Amino acid sequence: MRVWEALGELWQARELVRTLVERDLRARYRRAFLGFAWAIITPLVFMVVFTVFFQRVAKVDTQGAPYPLFAYIGFTAWSFFSRSVSAGSSSLLGNSLLKKVYCPREIFPLASIITVGVDTAVALGALAFLFVVTDFTPRITTLWVPVLVIVQLAFVLGVTMALAPVAVYVRDLTHALPMLLQLGLFATPVAYGLDVVPASLRWLYALLNPLAPIIDGYRRTMLYGLAPNWELLLLSSISATLALVLGYTIFKRLETGLADVA
Questions:
Q1: Once rounded to an integer, what is the mean pLDDT over residues 208-237?
Q2: Which end is more exposed in the chain, N or C (fewer Cβ atoms within 10 Å of the end residue's Cβ)?
């Protein structure tokens, strides 16, 4: 099936995607007393932990920006990636709809990503509150943020699309993924800045970890009044695009027997 035909099928199934997102959100917060507040509590807790341990012990250089803002921006961006990959990779496992309804199989990991995106949007409300509390004004260069979001979405989609069908055939992935994501948290400049990586190695770091220039870009645009580092972002975009193309190719190659194995 050609890409345009696949995208056409996805568009026709948009109502089913919306239904899946609503179902997932209701199931997640149905009996939670605090409800959507958990979308804010989690990044706030990590921000406090990072502030207490990293800022006081490691003395992270934030170039004059308040560390709580520095950490919250980094963790929110990382959380969207890690939670999307985690939820999306397991979206096909034990899914009864695979056998009951004919639809593009991509809608299941896609719905998982959108669900996490809703939580992330709620968490951004706390970011606005932090700007007020710290008496720090977002810079006009925040207008570059949509460019960074597009690159991050491409990377998230690619990784999630690749892992979702693989997790059906190789169940060990569901056990290994939480550990890999935990390691990825410390290998990504979430609690610290990109400046800790030697300048001579940053190009390689950007290729291997596309999230690094993206998170750095969020901070540069929102906190420092600078444009993203275009050279590193270009390398990140190349990796994100390759991940998207490869991930979608893997998904389409493996989707045929998903209903029988899942």
A1: 97
A2: N
